Amino acid sequence: MIVLDLFAGPGGWSHALAVLGVRDVGLEWDAAACKTRAAAGQLTVRADVAMYPTWPWVGRTHGVIASPPCQAWSMAGKRLGLLDQPLVHQAVEDLAHGRDTRHRLRVACRDARSLLAAEPMRFLHALHTVGEPEWVVMEEVPDVLPLWRQYAAILRTWGFSVWCGILNAADYGVPQTRRRAILLGSRVRTASPPSPTHAKVAEPESLFGPGRARWVGMAEALGWDTTDHAEPALCAGGGPGAGPEPFPSGAHQAHAAARDHGPWSRHGDKPARCRFRAADPAKAPPPTLTSKAHPWKWSLRSNNQTNATVRSADEPAGTLFFGYRANECTWVAEPAAAPPWSSQCDVVPEPIRITAREAGILQTFPADYPWRGTKGEQFSQIGNAVPPRLAAHLLAPHLRVPLNPDDFTLAA
């Protein structure tokens, strides 16, 4: 029996299933995502889900997973999918009754990708004719929740128990406050969301057992030394976290100086080679801080827009999204405490772009996950993927296997 993963992406669901001891077959069109999946040892059929026939899966599918592309609905895009909602609802209704009106409706859509959210119903209707699948799990951005409710109403008429709602990935140990619309359906058990394991504030032990742990912060997930102020780690690859992404020009030397000699290190009578912003570097006095001092408080800024989400490194990240903004998600520094000579020299390290490795870890992929493609393609895959740790919480009850959170070690 097969677990079918529609719109499989780079393997968020697949990695979770592998940790749980199950393999899926993914349908995915994007070439870079297919290369990533192949490098990760995942079974993949490269195909356009909207064009792929349903008959190969009938009579052999145990579970269906669907995370349709969210660009048409996401707040990071133009959100034309919201305007296309009536057409998508009509497509779902028609497909649930065996009527394929996709071509006519697609022509009327403002964003052709909008109708991809109706594709899971085409597969579910075909499988329902033979009493399959046993379970369904779907994930999308929060604005798709009304569509999931339509799916839920149809699935209930087919004998499924269904739950749908909004879950926050941070409540399940993901170092990211990523809110997603989730649908869970089962023919053999009562569908319900998994119990949260984490909370914004740690909870004390009670008569009912241990309380939930505090949300996982970025520094903890990345393995930064939190005994002092966390900072992006310098690596041989030219970027923090051993990733391939380069520092902005000169920032590599800046962080080498900060780590090895203190952030305000001077070589002879001139500042270390770096791109610090200084009020008047020539007048800056010799530094008094030692190499063990870490005076910077690091935060992650989601993009360069005025209203960008900025989170301290000891907090979870905001929702990671990339695409054309792959190089706008940056670590930014501010003084953790005012240096004694701040009135004479205002020195701040320049922002450092996040690496694919770091972004992947914040999505709970393994640190050595084999991302493939250009930098932009890698970031796009990461931003669109479901966090494997959240996926495992959603899948484990349907697979009747225990989930060990330690299997999702974040930083290597």
UniProtKB/TrEMBL annotation:
Domain of life: Bacteria
Region described as Disordered: spans on this chain: 238-271
Basic and acidic residues: compositionally biased ranges: 257-271
Annotated keywords: Methyltransferase, Restriction system, S-adenosyl-L-methionine, Transferase
The EC number(s) this enzyme carries: 2.1.1.37
InterPro entries: C5-Methyltransferase (IPR050390), C5_MeTfrase (IPR001525), SAM-dependent_MTases_sf (IPR029063)
GO MF terms, alphabetically ordered: methyltransferase activity
Catalytic residues as annotated in Swiss-Prot or TrEMBL: 70
GO term, biological process aspect, one: methylation
Pfam families (UniProt xref): DNA_methylase (PF00145)
Family membership: Belongs to the class I-like SAM-binding methyltransferase superfamily. C5-methyltransferase family.
UniProt name for this protein: DNA (cytosine-5-)-methyltransferase
Lineage of the species this protein comes from: Bacteria, Bacillati, Actinomycetota, Actinomycetes, Kitasatosporales
